[in-house]
Amino acid sequence: MTCACARRCLFGALLLLLPATAAAAQDSVTFCAYNLRNWLSQTDPSSPATTPRQKPEREKRKVIEFLGQIRPDILGVCEIGTPEDLADLQSRLRSAGIDLPHHEFCRGADPQRSLALLSRHPLSQRRSAGPLPYQINGETLRLQRGILDASVAVAPGFELRFLGVHLKSRREVAEADQDLMRRSEAHLLRRHLDTIYATESRPALVVYGDFNAHRNEPALLEVIGSRALDSHLLEIPVRDRHGLLWTHFWDAADVYSRLDYLLVSRTLRPRVDNARSRIFDDADFGVASDHRPLVLVLKPPAR
Predict the structure, then answer these.
(1) Distance from C-alpha of 69 to C-alpha of 142, rounded to nearest angstrom
(2) Cα–Cα distance between 108 and 122 in angstroms, integer?
(3) In angstroms, rounded to a whole number, what is the distance separating the alpha carbons of residues 39 and 88?
(4) Highest mean pLDDT: which range of 39-43, 45-49, 119-123
(5) Structure pTM?
(6) Which of 72, 236, 266, 281 is the most buried (most CB within 10 A)?
């Protein structure tokens, strides 16, 4: 065979492989949930010392480096500041080759930290709830970061509905007992879920975020719901490459905790790729955030 013939054969073989490669790229959807630790750019110099400050450039670069390795199709983040901060994150990701042009931004009563969802796929519905009220001992308080609720059309005939939260921190505050506040916020999320199930028989739900709760605590158990009901959520216990479950490190106390979770509806559970879903771990995770990213890989229906 001449060199010219060999080149033509090789070129033809590559052309045959290209459609298969493109199709394989659509065989899964990668979702990442990540608490960014104060991705903030606008701060008030006169604010109290407890107010979070602007996120250092070194931390931002490390966040983008990690996301560049994960390469999410959909990204749910906690502790983003303003819509301008979200645009900054999108721009940096685009420069790293990750284009997530569609987004939902959700702000609760917290003037500093918000929630956001970024997606490569179009958002078909947006039903987020902001600073919803609740009461403790006769005092009216409001949901600090809201409930992000957005649906993403990831494939023809296949839509995922994402609910993101960042429940009350475990830090004591003057307003009320921090545990009761978190449980009240969890109750608002469960009420939001019950409303969904009252109108949809088989929703494909991903409920994610920083719950600031341990696995056996009432706040998380209320969100998960009763096993006897169709609205019961299933936990995806992702692990790192060492088999460990912790997602947060509190360096002041030298404590490793599992505070971030991925929950899915029963309808969606069979589409979870267990082998590829994981906690992203890196020795320098603490440079980017005190939380580690959670990765959920889903398999859309065959076309």
Answers:
(1) 37
(2) 24
(3) 10
(4) 119-123
(5) 0.89
(6) 72
